[in-house]
């Protein structure tokens, strides 16, 4: 996270640095980003940059946190509004996320994050902001509450992955209606179940 020195900067200067970060990270994946271009755009010295941020990954995490905070839709709120139908909540969340990211001035930043940077950060063990509250949320599918923590986490992670993949594909130029239809189809399959009741069998059962 940014240093206290950065936090104490005047608002105008912090905004200029933030905009320089957004310009860089909207044009280049974080693996190709350069401090040289950022400090030129922000009109600061290299020494000042490293007083504000530990490294370029630190500056990216800061920019990502600010950019994500501008999206006024959260899964937690959607799940709270649809307590009996978690799948409907995921669909509503994804719809709103698509609209807000597509209409955002940070569209290219989001596209690079979901297309490339989120995976790169995992490889270099630079964790992006996560929604830590998810483990404590009630998940209801087909009228049944999932209480097993491991099962719930697995389902939520799957749905989040597919939701964000839907957003990524739309930001990369695929048809939004078709992408959302595919996502809804997946939710319908989960809702209906893949096997008839009584025919359940574990994947590795003989």
Write a structural description.
- The structure is a single chain.
- The chain is mainly α and 206 residues long.
- The N and C termini lie far apart (50 Å).
- The chain has helices at residues 4-7, 11-27, 35-42, 46-52, 56-69, 75-81, 86-102, 107-123, 149-171, 176-192, and strands at residues 139-141, 144-146.
- It has a two-stranded antiparallel sheet.
- The chain is built from 10 helices and 2 strands.
- Helix 2 (11-27) packs across helix 8 (107-123), helix 6 (75-81) crosses helix 7 and helix 7 runs parallel beside helix 9.
Instruction: Output the structural class.
Output: mainly alpha
**Averaged pLDDT:** 87
**Uncertain parts:** none
Number of helices: 10
What is the helix fraction of residues, given as a range? Answer: 55-70%
User: What does the largest sheet look like?
Assistant: 2 strands, antiparallel
Which sequence of SSEs, written as H and E, runs from N to C? HHHHHHHHEEHH
Q: What sort of overall outline do the alpha carbons produce when their principal axes are compared? A: elongated
Distance between the termini: 50 Å
Strand order of the largest sheet: 1-2
Strand fraction: under 5%
Over all CA atoms, what is the radius of gyration? 20 Å
Number of strands: 2
